[in-house]
Amino acid sequence: MSVADKGKTPDSLPPAGKNKRRFLSAEKKYQIFLEAQRGEAPVGELLRREGLYSTDLARIQRKVKESALQGLAKRPGRSKKTVSEEEYDVLKRELQEKERVMAEMAVELAILRKKTNGGSWER
Questions:
Q1: What is the pTM of this model?
Q2: Is-contact 27 2, C-beta < 8 A?
Q3: Which residues are CB-neighbours of 24 under 8 A, at least 6 positions away?
Q4: Interval 43-99: pLDDT, tens
Q5: What are the pLDDT digits (tens) for 26-42?
Q6: 71 — phi, psi (to 5°)?
Q7: Calpha distance 60→66 (Å, rounded)
Q8: To which H or E segment does residue 99 belong?
């Protein structure tokens, strides 16, 4: 065991020769991005402290830029809702049924108007 590993139990150490992959949350990645942008400390120090490589930081910066551009490209207002094919078919059938019923009611209305000699409903 090295001096750096002195306080750690053997279970908490990564297996010899294998690097454990570390997953960072989106919040942590954004925090790292902001620290790198501020420039208060050297980037190398930040990378060592976080256990990252310069390519990791470049990837984070690229994703932040892409996400920012994507967010700024959106137009204000409600976004268009997409429906599945099944929902579309159900809505289409409902619309056809309602149109059929309206056509029947229009015929009934025409018949009623003929019976009242086309006059108004008021007498």
A1: 0.48
A2: no
A3: 32
A4: 999 999 999 999 999 999 999 999 999 988 888 887 778 889 999 999 999 999 999
A5: 999 999 999 999 988 89
A6: -65, -35
A7: 10
A8: helix 85-115
Which is nearest to 60 in space by CA: 27, 35, 30, 21?
30
Alpha helix stretches (DSSP H) within 24-84: 26-38, 43-50, 54-73
CB 27 within 8 A of CB 21: no
Supply 83's token pair: 């429906």
Query: What's at 12, amino acid-wise?
Result: S
Per-position b or e across 18-42, b if 16+ CB within 10 A of its CB: eeeeeeeeeeebeebbebbeeeeee
